[in-house]
């Protein structure tokens, strides 16, 4: 950050309270996580002339704070825990409690050139619905394991009935999410483009549209870094004719198992592709279709064709992955 005189606030979010610290350090406030506490937070920010606010994702507990700060005149950004954790390691700060975490988030906020934008309000309902869909899928997975391992036929029947009930609900909720996406012309266009790619079904397309609102506004490399799908680099050394050592770097196949910590990790149901699948999808991305006059005139953001999609998400069908 260029303006070293700017006062920044860091907020550590817990289930029932908020810890707020300022950078430069010296001030700390703890408030209840309710309407009265949020009013005290606003007064604290105004009193100390805070120029920007940062807070950490906290398993969904931060959502109320996010909505509140989105309406605030003070710029705010939400960070992933991994970002703050690596920042702490770079500062050799290993001690951890709510007050120290708030101070660390404030220092991290002050060191950023620009804050990440808060999610658009139109994604609030979509994110909630998609999270519920993922929870249903988790329950189905658990019940399938229970049905496979139980010895009592009566219990097996109960598990199978529960699975059928939840799968029926899953299909209904997925159709509801698709209908909500279809009401937004911009999101509907993104979904249509994604499902037109071989290997991308409705479920994965919905997850990408909702969990990756950055699609269409970032480059291929930026999307790859954001999702943790950048191909791992393999470095090999070889001795040349003159005896000098040289390095050859070759990209590997992007694999879901090699994802780095990111805001979208585990949010997208993706299986691993084969090397052939990687090559096919790369060809699709590098050859964007020619936009029709009608579509190009109604698309307000940078086109979601190949140049902006970044590495293609893994297809839903399973392959073996060759290194």
Characteristics:
14% strand; 12 helices; 47% helix; two-stranded antiparallel ribbon; 323 residues; 7 strands; alpha/beta; globular; five-stranded mixed sheet; disordered C terminus; Nucleotidyltransferase, domain 5; single chain
CATH fourth-tier homologous superfamily of the domain at 7-111: Ribonuclease H-like superfamily/Ribonuclease H
Strand content: 5-15%
Poorly predicted regions are 245-323
The total count of strands amounts to 7
Largest sheet: 5 strands, mixed
Counted by DSSP, the helix tally is 12
Q: What's the overall average pLDDT, rounded? A: 76
Strand order, largest beta sheet? 3-2-1-4-5
CATH fold-type name of the domain at 7-111: Nucleotidyltransferase, domain 5
CATH C-level class of the domain at 7-111 is Alpha Beta
Order of helices and strands: EEEHEHEHHHHHHHEEHHH
**CATH architecture classification of the domain at 7-111:** 2-Layer Sandwich
Q: SS-based structural class?
A: alpha/beta
Distance between the termini: 40 Å
Determine the fraction of residues in helical runs and give it as a percent range. Answer: 40-55%
Shape: globular
Gyration radius, in Å: 23 Å
Give a written overview of the molecule.
- The protein has twelve helices and seven strands.
- Helix content is 47%, strand content 14%.
- It has 323 residues and is an alpha/beta fold.
- The model is unreliable at 245-323 (pLDDT under 50).
Task: Provide a short characterization of the protein structure.
With 323 residues, the chain is an alpha/beta fold.
């Amino acid at each position: 950050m260029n303006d070293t005189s700017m006062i920044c606030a860091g907020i550590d979010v817990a289930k029932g309270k908020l810890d707020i610290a300022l950078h430069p350090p010296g001030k700390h406030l703890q408030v209840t996580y309710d309407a009265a506490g949020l009013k005290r937070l606003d007064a604290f920010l105004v009193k100390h002339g805070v120029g920007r606010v940062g807070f950490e994702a906290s398993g969904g507990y931060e959502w109320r704070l996010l909505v509140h700060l989105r309406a605030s005149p003070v710029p705010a950004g939400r960070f992933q825990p991994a970002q703050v954790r690596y920042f702490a390691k770079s500062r050799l700060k290993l001690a951890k409690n709510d007050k120290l975490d708030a101070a660390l988030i404030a220092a991290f906020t002050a060191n950023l050139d620009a804050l990440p934008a808060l999610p658009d309000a139109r994604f609030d309902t979509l994110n909630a619905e998609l999270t519920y869909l993922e929870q249903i899928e988790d329950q189905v997975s658990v019940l399938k394991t229970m049905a496979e391992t139980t010895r009592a036929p009566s219990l097996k029947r109960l598990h199978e009935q529960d699975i059928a009930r939840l799968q029926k609900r899953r299909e209904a909720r997925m159709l509801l999410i698709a209908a909500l996406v279809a009401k937004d012309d911009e999101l509907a266009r993104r979904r249509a483009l994604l499902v037109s790619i071989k290997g991308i079904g409705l479920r994965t397309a919905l997850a990408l549209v909702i969990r990756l609102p950055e699609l269409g506004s970032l480059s291929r490399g930026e999307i790859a870094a954001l999702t943790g799908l950048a191909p791992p680099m393999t470095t090999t050394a070889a001795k040349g004719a003159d005896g000098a050592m040289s390095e050859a770097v070759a990209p590997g196949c992007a694999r879901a198992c090699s994802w780095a910590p990111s805001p979208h990790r585990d949010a997208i149901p993706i299986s691993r592709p084969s090397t052939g699948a990687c090559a096919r999808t790369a060809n699709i991305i590098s050859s964007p279709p020619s936009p029709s006059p009608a579509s190009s005139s109604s698309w307000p953001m940078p086109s979601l064709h190949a140049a902006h999609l970044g590495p293609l998400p893994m297809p839903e069908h399973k392959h073996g992955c060759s290194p």
